[in-house]
Specification:
The chain is an all-alpha fold. It is built from 4 helices and no strands. The protein starts with a helix and ends with a helix. The relative contact order is 0.15.
């Protein structure tokens, strides 16, 4: 997850490649949501701690797609 966040930041801010950033953020969404659902079976509290992060990522995904479509 950390590597994906780093790569997204480079793609979005440094390279200003919105399409690459959208692709990376979608992969990151999938990884975080998958982790959250898998962890829920083992440790509910750990999984619930990821819910705000997952919601933030979904909001960030929306903004990223919006910026890509409008530019």
């Amino acid at each position: 997850q950390l590597a994906l966040v780093f790569c997204w930041g480079v793609a979005f801010f440094l390279l200003q490649e919105a399409l690459w950033a959208v692709g990376l953020i979608l992969v990151l969404d999938a990884v975080v949501l998958d982790y959250t659902f898998i962890t829920f079976k083992k440790d509910r509290w750990a999984s619930l701690c990821f819910v705000p992060y997952a919601l933030w990522l979904l909001w960030l995904t929306y903004l990223n797609i919006y910026l890509y479509l409008c530019n």
